[in-house]
UniProtKB/TrEMBL annotation:
Domain annotation DUF3817: ranges: 8-96
Species of provenance: Streptacidiphilus fuscans
Membrane disposition: Multi-pass membrane protein
Protein name: DUF3817 domain-containing protein
PANTHER family, A to Z: MEMBRANE PROTEIN, MEMBRANE PROTEIN-RELATED
Main location: membrane
Spans through the membrane: 13-35, 42-63, 69-90
Length: 113
């Protein structure tokens, strides 16, 4: 895997879009149940987040399998899409770890060459 891998790009995009959708859904629920307004926004944001979250789960699981992550890390990454704003922090950590692994592999290849 390299830094411009389509699977990594899909993961990053879906993480951000899913996170934004969940934040919008959370705010819409607060508006609906706290202030009695925005019922339609809850439906729209709920559908939006639900479909995107399913795509996020598939891509995160695929990424974890490709990188041979332990199941606990895959589950942790997938569940981040269910807690408002958590996915933003998890995405940054995952990308940082992947880039560090890639840099270590490149360094090892240079030493062995």
């Amino acid at each position: 895997m390299n830094k411009s891998n389509p699977l990594l790009t899909a993961y990053r995009v879906l993480a951000y879009v899913t996170g934004v959708g969940l934040v919008v859904l959370t705010l819409a629920c607060i508006a609906k149940y706290g202030f009695g307004t925005g019922a339609q926004l809850v439906v729209i944001a709920g559908i939006f987040h639900g479909w995107l979250y399913m795509a996020y789960v598939v891509v995160a699981f695929s990424l974890g399998n490709k990188l041979n992550w332990p199941i606990s890390k895959i589950v942790w990454t997938v569940l981040a899409g269910t807690v408002p704003t958590a996915v933003f922090f998890v995405e940054r950590r995952v990308v940082r770890e992947i880039h560090a692994e890639l840099a270590a592999k490149e360094q090892a290849e240079l030493v062995n060459a």
